[in-house]
């Protein structure tokens, strides 16, 4: 399994993780780092590094999942960990993406695993279409 760090603006990460706990229960391979309005870049960097250090004691490969491409949690994750060959930084956090990352078995090809995780996240974005009504043609009693 991969270590997973959720980081996003405000308490979005905490909310996603809270929902996941209802579905799959507590997981040892996930941590949450909120980026609150009151925090500086340095505060976020410190929290990300401490969380990474803790999680990397048990998991060699870590996936950061952030909310917004170019946003502060994404940018700081890339700045601090983007050069690490055992780290990938994803964006577009949603429930299926995080769920997939949490249960994905670690293989030798981290990039292929991450592609599969992203596919799961993208496939979770859809809309409901009401099924077409099945009208029977009326006949003249035949």
TrEMBL record:
GO cellular component: membrane
InterPro entries with a match to the protein in the record: Bacterial_PTS_sugar_comp, PTS_EIIA_man-typ, PTS_EIIA_man-typ_sf
Annotated source species: Criibacterium bergeronii
Keywords: Transferase
Pfam annotation, one family: EIIA-man
Residue ranges constituting the PTS EIIA type-4 domain according to the UniProt record: 1-125
A GO BP annotation: phosphoenolpyruvate-dependent sugar phosphotransferase system
One Gene Ontology term of the molecular function aspect: transferase activity
Lineage start: Bacteria, Bacillati, Bacillota, Clostridia, Peptostreptococcales
Protein name: PTS fructose transporter subunit IIA
Xref: SUPFAM superfamilies: PTS system fructose IIA component-like (SSF53062)
């Amino acid at each position: 399994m991969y270590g997973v760090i959720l980081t996003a603006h405000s308490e979005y990460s905490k909310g996603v993780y809270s929902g996941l706990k209802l579905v799959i229960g507590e997981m040892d391979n996930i941590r949450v780092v909120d980026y609150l309005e009151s925090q500086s870049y340095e505060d976020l960097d410190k929290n990300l590094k401490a969380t990474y250090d803790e999680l990397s004691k048990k998991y060699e490969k870590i996936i950061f999942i952030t909310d917004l491409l170019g946003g502060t949690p994404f940018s700081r994750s890339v700045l601090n960990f983007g050069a690490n060959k055992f780290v990938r930084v994803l964006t577009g956090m949603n429930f299926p993406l995080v769920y997939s990352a949490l249960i994905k078995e670690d293989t030798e090809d981290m990039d292929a695993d991450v592609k599969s995780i992203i596919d799961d996240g993208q496939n979770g974005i859809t809309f409901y279409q009401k099924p077409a009504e099945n009208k029977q043609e009326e006949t003249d009693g035949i």
